[in-house]
Amino acid sequence: MIDLYTAATPNGFKISIALEEMGLEYRVHKLDFSSNEQKQPEFIAINPNGRIPAIIDRDNEDFVVFESGAILLYLAEKTGKLLPAEPKKRSQVIQWLMFQMSGVGPMMGQANVFFRYFPEKIPAAINRYQKEGRRLFEVMNTQLATNQYLAGDEYTIADIATWPWVRIHEWSGINMDGLTHLQRWLDELALRPACQKGIITPPPVEMSDEERAKQIQKMVTK
């Protein structure tokens, strides 16, 4: 049994998708950002950085793993799924996983903050992160022009890490115009049952865009 500590965010959805794809039994613990639950001592004891997601593997002496990329690698190695054993192919998957972790996630996250949530509109910051997000999309589009998936012909944890972010490109204000290969990949993964289940685990909080923006404004301006 895997205990998953998570919330309805792209980083959280990575792990719920992976658990569904790998067929692992898991139990969801949803953290409430509005009450700052991720910063409480109980969760800090699991992840000192106070961020979701994190897991506890009850079948491995209650082993704790935090950071979404590290969790994906741990689960792939635990199950032998979604990460090739052949060294070069394995490296390619890890390279694209790191591309998401160091590029797509941070740039889109900052685009979200400055485009949607920050109380003061700073055009230079909005343009910077949207432009860099678009550039990263173009890199993926080129890769997907000759590959079915990000790391080649196999669906892997690199795709799982990246898809939950790319699918919210409109929220980040990043357009997909002309990126036909990236759009093909986006649509194809949306048909996978594990992706469909993963992005509603946990269910998103029902609130308007304005209410959500106000809630996150409080978090990003603290």
TrEMBL record:
Pfam families the record matches: GST_C (PF00043), GST_N (PF02798)
Q: In what residue span(s) does the GST N-terminal domain sit? A: 1-83
Signal peptide positions (record): none
Q: Which domain of life is it from?
A: Bacteria
The GST C-terminal domain is annotated at: 86-216
Where exactly are the transmembrane stretches of this chain?
A: none
Q: Which family does it belong to?
A: Belongs to the GST superfamily.
Q: What is this protein called?
A: Thiol:disulfide oxidoreductase
